Amino acid sequence: MSQKTVTITDNATGKSVDFPIREATHGPAVIDIKNLYKEMGYFTYDPGFTSTASCRSDITYIGGDQGELWYRGYPIDQLAEQSSFLEVAYLLLHGELPNKRELDTFNRAITHHTMVNESLKNFFNGFHYNAHPMAMLTGVVGSLSAFYHDTVDVNDPHNRMLCAYRIFAKMPTISAAAFKHMLGEPFVYPQNRLSYCGNLLNMLFSRPSEEFEINPVAERALDQLLILHADHEQNASTSTIRLTGSTGTNPFAAVAAGCAALWGPAHGGANEAVLNMLEEIGDVKQVPRYIDKAKDKDDPFRLMGFGHRVYKHYDPRASIIRKTCHEVLDELGIYNDPQLELAMRLEEIALADDYFVERKLYPNVDFYSGIIYRALGIPTEFFTVMFAIGRAPGWLAQWMELVTDPEQRIGRPRQLYAGPSKRDYVPLHRRSG
Predict the structure, then answer these.
(1) Under CATH, which architecture does the 76-411 domain have?
(2) Predicted confidence band at 66 (pLDDT cuts at 50, 70, 90)?
(3) What is the distance between the alpha carbons of residues 348 and 332, in angstroms, rounded to a whole number?
(4) What pathway, per the record (predicted)?
(5) Is residue 308 annotated as part of the catalytic site, yes or no?
(6) Active-site pick, 181, 229, 232, 308
(7) Check: CATH 3.60.15.10 for 5-53?
C-alpha cells in the first residue's frame, strides 16, 4: 500500500482523518475508506457505484480515456487477432497464456465436460415454446447445482476449477438446447471432434435430416466475438456475480445471477436494442430523419450501439470486429437484408458526421455484434445468450478471484435513508380515509 494519504475534514466538527491511498498498476488510485464510518460516522453516497472500487482485481484493465482493454495485461487487439477463445479462457482462468501442452490438456478437459446429464433436458420441457431464451439459460444454469452439489467446495482449489470447467464447457450445450426448444427442433449433442465455436454452431444449426457444414469465416467471427466479450472489468453482471459469490453460494447460482443481470437491455441486451432500433427506423430513406432526431436533445430517440459509457474514445473492440463484420457479410453474400443495409448506412454517417465525430459517438461492439449475429441467422432475442457464452470465462475468473481474496467480505452496500422519521402505529379503526 502507498504511504500517500488523503485527509478528510469534517467542517462541522473540525475533525480530520487521514485515509491511505492504494496505487493501481494502471488507472486511477483509490482512497481506502473502509474505516470512514468508524472514524467519522459517515458513509459515502455513490449511486451506481461509478466512483467506488469494490474490489482489487488482476484480471482486466480498461483505460476508457485511451480506448484500452487488456486481459491479464494483454491488449485486446492482439488477443482477438492472434489467439482463440479457448486460449483466452485459459488465460482468464489461470492467469497466464498456456503452452501447447497446457492448451491441449485444457481443450480435452473442456471437451470432456460439454455433455449435460440427460435428465437436465427435462427442465426445458417446463418452459413454454416462446419463453425468452435468457429465462431458460438462467434457470437451467442455476439447476446445475442440483447435479453437482457433492463436488462444490468453494474452499477447495481443485473443486473450484472443476466447477469453472463444467460451467464453461456446458454453456454452449445449454444455450443451444434453449435455441432448439424455441424452434421445436430436437436437441443436438456436442461433437468432440469440433472446436468450441464449431461445436456451438453445429448444435445451433444442424438438423438430423441433413448435413451441416461449418463455415470457417463464421466460426472465426464467432470465436473473435466471444473473445471480445470474455470480460469487461466490474460491469453490472460481473459485480452481481461477485456480490452473490461473497455469500459463499455455489458458482452455478452465482453465474445464474450474472445471467439475470446480463439480461437487461442496458447491459447484455444492448446488441438486441440495436436491431430493435433498426426495425423502428424501418427504411434506409428514413435514416436522415432519425439522425436529426438523435441530434435533438429534446427528442427521446437515441441511437443504440453508438458511443460507450466507459470508453471516452473509440471502443477498442469495435475497431477489431468492424473488419470481421464486413468479412462475414461478404462471405455470406448478404446484400438484400433491409436491416443490414440500414446498419451500414448508419455506420457510414456516424464515421463521417461532425456531430458524432466530435462527441466520439462511434459504433461500438454491440452495434457490430448485432449485425454479425443477424447475418449468421441468430434471432434477436438470442443475442444476449451469445453474450453470456462469451462472458462465462470472465465471470468464472472473477468468482475465483473473489473467493480467494482474504480482504473480501460478504457484500453489504449502505444507503442514504430518506424515508419517514420514527412514528407510532395507528390502529386501523382510527386511520382517516
Answers:
(1) Orthogonal Bundle (1.10)
(2) confident
(3) 21
(4) Carbohydrate metabolism; tricarboxylic acid cycle; isocitrate from oxaloacetate: step 1/2
(5) yes
(6) 308
(7) no
